Amino acid sequence: MDPVVTDANTGGSFNRYNYANNNPYLFTDPDGRCGVREGLGCYTTVFPEGPSDSGAGSSSRGVRGPSPTGAVVGAGFGAAVAVGCDGITLGICALGNPAIVAGGAALGAVTPAAIKTAQKQLGRLLNKTDSGVPDEYQYALVANSSGMYPSVRGGMVHLDKGDVWKYGTTYDPAGRYSITTLAALNVSMQTQMRGSYISTLIAEKTQLIFYAMMNGTLPPGNSRFK
Amino acid sequence: MKIKFTGMLDSTIPDSYLSVFERLSETLSNALGDRNYGALDEVTFITVVIDETLEENEDRASTITNFTRYTHPFTKQRFRALFIAIPFARPNFASMDERAMFEAVCDSAILFVMTSALKAPKDVEYTRLRMDLVEAIQAQKNSALAEKFFKDH
């Protein structure tokens, strides 16, 4: 029996005989379950669950956003509350969350359409090639302690210790911009992956999509899907 | 004056470093919060554990450590700060439990403050700041260990 289950939302893996995401130039498929890109782990072209093992560093701590009970305050946010969603129930979650459906963009919430667009962009990134020189980092900025943190979309957001404030990429983690941000905002930088320019962009976008699916919004430090 | 502890760390480092930073930032800011050392608003210690070896992390740390001024990205307020980067080798730091991490960060911070040859601006009382920092970090280290704040594993 084929252990790979079709994704009901996206149709991913519907074709039971798909090999290496139909792109053997970029992917291999050693166990027949998913396409693997070197250094990035398991991917399917439609991103159902992110990388499954090594590489992009997706982990439970990597997607923690504002706590579901945490108040989201500030003029722009109004009464919006960060609601935990997951990839499978995203549609139901979005319908059940007025902040996402009604004027979601203004409130900082992410619409399913925006996630779909980001997934398409991710697909395009997966088909790009670059130098392969591992001189970039994909990082997360995480809250050093529980409290209120500014959002780039306006207002303040409550984060628990260890929650992600921002995902990003940089070629120099010790650069002045990074250090100033760490000092000013009481966050730490976790370098989650080192790789080529394109591979770090893929890792960043993967993290952002996964975060949005889990939390219904982007991290407070990200203004948009990059 | 405010004392902050933060870091640039590889994702393999266990989350326990957050408790270490939180404890040190709180207790040292309480201890030195009402003191004035001239034209200085804050001292930020930045733990650097990105690369495998100590030497690589030392290279990064050397570009960070300095007296500087920066603008808060949201409030646009200007701060006069001393950034002190303290590097560790990644495998070494990743294998530490919370208590060992706390001791290592305290010891490295003390060692840097005692031995650094940083040139301070004329309007900063760096000698007095150094003495007070060493004394405060040592005191916080002793009290945290005495009250068994950090768990042994």
* Helical content band of chain A: 25-40%
Runs of chain A in which pLDDT lies below 50 for 5 or more consecutive residues are 44-62, 67-107
Main sheet of chain A? 3 strands, antiparallel
* Average predicted local confidence, pLDDT of chain B: 92
From the N-terminal CA to the C-terminal CA of chain A, the straight-line distance is 39 Å
Averaged pLDDT of chain A, please?
69
Radius of gyration of chain A: 18 Å
- Structural class by helix and strand composition of chain A: alpha+beta
Question: Largest interface by residue count?
Answer: A-B, 31 and 34 residues
Strand order of the largest sheet of chain B: 1-2-4-3
Please count the helical segments of chain A: 6
Straight-line N-to-C gap of chain B: 34 Å
> Quick one: overall form of chain A?
globular
Give the class of chain B from helix and strand content and strand pairing: alpha/beta
> Helicity range of the residues of chain B?
40-55%
Sheet with the most strands: spatial strand order of chain A: 3-6-5
Number of E strands of chain A:
8
CATH architecture classification name of chain B: 3-Layer(aba) Sandwich
Question: Main beta sheet of chain B, described?
Answer: 4 strands, mixed
